[in-house]
Amino acid sequence: APTATSITSKDGRPKKLPKRMVLGKDGKPCRSCNSFADFTSQKKLITKGAIASGPPSDCPPDVEQLGRSSWTLLHSITATYPTNPSTSEQRNVSQFMGLFSKIYPCWVCAEDFQEFMAKNQVRVESRDAFGKWMCEAHNEVNRKLGKTEFDCSKWEERWRTGWKD
Ligand code: FAD
């Protein structure tokens, strides 16, 4: 992904950026592609409290907030998907996933997700297949970010039925 160590500020002088800052397609720091910590350090708003508690809930989302909300929506869609979907229900979710991967606001995330979808066609023939496919898609991102993989045999407990006692 395009990153930069400096950008030109409004007064024409180069402005130093944090090492991992991902830029938007407009060449400016991309809020939904970076963590709050990286973004705020660029904006010189670092206060220990702000970074520790994450972005305020009434601010535009960073890459993590956007991700958590999006996974909640995606897994919830699989949880309410029919066990035996009609042809049109299958077509609808296939189209939705294709469009979702194109318009996801973190463009670097979107490009990787499109690549994953090109190699792993979305499975929509049943709730179980769709739920497991989504779990695998999420695990692909988990691996990329060095997070623990989720046990996909438990996707329904996490997102539909609640945990067994
Ligand atoms: P999340 O990963 O958001 O997970 C939320 C909850 O889902 C977890 O607490 C857990 O209970 C459950 N869960 C975890 N894994 C699974 C699974 N495999 N199946 C079912 N449930 C699960 N961030 C980046 O920095 N770079 C990226 O390239 C990037 N790409 C993304 C692509 C997409 C399509 C999406 C939706 C998000 C992407 N993100 C990316 C955001 C990233 O995946 C996380 O959402 C973000 O880092 C916050 O992580 P989290 O630890 O709070 O939990």
UniProtKB/TrEMBL annotation:
Residues 59-159 form the ERV/ALR sulfhydryl oxidase domain. It is found in: Mitochondrion intermembrane space. The keyword Disulfide bond applies. GO terms for cellular component: mitochondrial intermembrane space. SUPFAM superfamilies: FAD-dependent thiol oxidase (SSF69000). This is Sulfhydryl oxidase. It catalyses: 2 R'C(R)SH + O2 = R'C(R)S-S(R)CR' + H2O2. GO terms for molecular function: flavin adenine dinucleotide binding; flavin-dependent sulfhydryl oxidase activity. Residues 1-21 are annotated as: Disordered. It comes from the Eukaryota. The keyword Disulfide bond applies. Keywords: Disulfide bond, FAD, Flavoprotein, Mitochondrion, Oxidoreductase. Its EC number is 1.8.3.2.
